[in-house]
Amino acid sequence: MKRILCVPIIAVIMLTFFGCERVIVTPQDELTSTSWETVTESGIRGKLDFSADSASFSVITATGDELAFISGALAVDRERFFITDTNLCKTYVFSYEVFTDRAVISHMGSTLTFERVTHATQP
Fold first, then answer.
1. DSSP code at position 17
2. CA 47, CA 45: separation in Å to the nearest integer?
3. For residue 121, what are the β-bridge partners?
4. Cβ proximity of 75 and 82 under 8 Å
5. pLDDT of 42-77, one tens digit each?
6. ∠ at Cα 95 (93, 96), nearest 5°?
């Protein structure tokens, strides 16, 4: 009886701790599994966030002026991602390459290198 009861309990414990881990298999998984940030030498800051089926991309100058803010529905393939802003009825196309610690994002001839946002854990 003890053996029969232990198997389901162990299975529940394993699913609790390991069942919610996201598996990264493709470049699009790597890109959309985290947030990305950049700061250029001229002080321009950029941020790229993904959440479920949506994304937001923002670029802000060193003086705090917003150069671009794009937010909307997300579609991703192996080389590009698309953000569709339903308010403007426009789809923006970005090319990307993902590396271990950075992502190179291109849009309309401009390229920025973003670093992975790491969230510090509290002790």
1. H
2. 7
3. none
4. yes
5. 999 999 999 989 999 999 988 889 888 999 999 999
6. 135
